[in-house]
Design brief:
The chain is of the alpha+beta class. It folds into two domains: 122 residues, Beta-Lactamase, CATH 3.30.450.40; 178 residues, Orthogonal Bundle (Hypothetical protein af1432), CATH 1.10.3210. Helices cover 58% and strands 6% of the residues. It has 14 helices and four strands. The protein has a four-stranded antiparallel β-sheet with strand order 1-4-3-2, with helices on both faces. The radius of gyration is 26 Å and the shape is elongated. It starts with a helix and ends with a helix.
């Protein structure tokens, strides 16, 4: 029987280890804890910083320093603590549980020891991702500050791209990465002269050739990293000015020769550029910009991306209006 219970704990723990996000981990933990402790009561999570709202018996117990991964208060409450260096403890509380045998208690010790390792790793991952996102935001600010016309452009293009990515059923993990990767689509403008970036009028043919090189410059900056984010960002930087009919740059790719990320970024980048003020013209109206997108179906833009864009145009309009307040 003990071997059977140990097998159960290993199985439940392995299912927790498969949780790729904090949300999924907490959902799985709640479900599996309920199976292990039994009882008909309510389970809930409560942050350690919210002590004034804990049941009084629970608040008294967690205030002591000797609490291990979990504890039971005479069958009235079950309390499990998840802790990491970077966050306040998180408690899983049940307001009833069955009496447990010594071997069941030992299994709980193993289970919550594993759960705490997973929680700590997910917290570290979240902290790393937040730091990475902040650094990318700062790099985006550096790029935007080189051009008077790019204020807020990286953030908006990222927001619009995520809307299309969700319509395309990107995984949650890829959406998180894409949110930052898209912000780097104009990285290559670091290598373009200020006189071209801020010219208050149309570019000459020679200046336009120079401007076009920002796609390749960005790609060359980003492509050497093996990180998925940088690989995605390199692809976007290189291909976001390619056109569906092959008339774009820098390589004249057409149709599905252009990567999906490039096709997504192409349409949202153009939309934001047209609907924002530039040094040589005022922003187009939302309606005029949407009509331009429609007219570009099958020539400048992937027809499927245009369809998805039009399906979500009200959501996109809300973001645009919010940013322009």
């Amino acid at each position: 029987d003990s071997r059977k219970k140990l097998t159960q704990v290993i199985q439940l723990s392995s299912e927790l280890f498969a949780s790729r996000t904090m949300e999924l981990f907490l959902t799985n933990l709640e479900t599996k804890t309920s199976l292990m402790i039994g009882g008909e009561g309510k389970l809930w999570f409560q942050n350690g910083s919210d002590k004034q709202n804990f049941p009084s018996a629970v608040a008294q117990r967690i205030s002591k320093d000797d609490m291990s991964f979990y504890t039971m208060l005479e069958g009235e409450y079950f309390i499990a603590r998840l802790s990491s260096r970077s966050t306040e403890p998180l408690y899983l509380i049940a307001d009833s549980c069955l009496s447990l045998q010594p071997d069941e208690i030992q299994m709980l010790e193993i289970f919550f020891s594993n759960a705490n390792i997973i929680y700590n790793n997910l917290c570290l991952k979240a902290d790393f991702m937040a730091t990475q996102s902040e650094m990318i935001g700062l790099l985006g600010d550096v790029i935007e500050n080189r051009s008077r016309e790019l204020s807020g452009h990286q953030e908006r293009v990222s927001d619009y791209a995520i809307i299309l990515a969700k319509k395309l059923d990107f995984s949650d993990e890829d959406i998180v990465i894409l949110r930052d990767a898209v912000k780097l689509h104009d990285t290559g403008k670091i290598g373009i002269f200020d006189s071209i970036l801020d010219k208050p009028g149309p570019l000459s043919p020679e200046e336009f050739e120079s401007m076009k090189s920002h796609t390749t410059i960005g790609y060359e900056i980003l492509r050497f990293s093996s990180r998925k984010l940088c690989q995605m960002a390199a692809s976007i930087a290189w291909e976001h000015h390619e056109k569906w009919d092959g008339s774009g740059y820098p390589r004249g790719l057409s149709g599905e020769q252009i990567g999906q990320l490039g096709r997504i970024t192409c349409i949202v980048d153009v939309f934001d550029a047209l609907s924002s003020d530039r040094v040589y013209r005022k922003a187009w109206s939302f309606e005029k910009t949407v009509q331009f997108i429609k007219d570009g179906r099958g020539t400048q833009f992937d027809p499927h991306m245009v369809n998805l864009f039009l399906e979500e145009q009200e959501t996109i309009k809300e973001i645009l209006m919010r940013e322009n307040k």
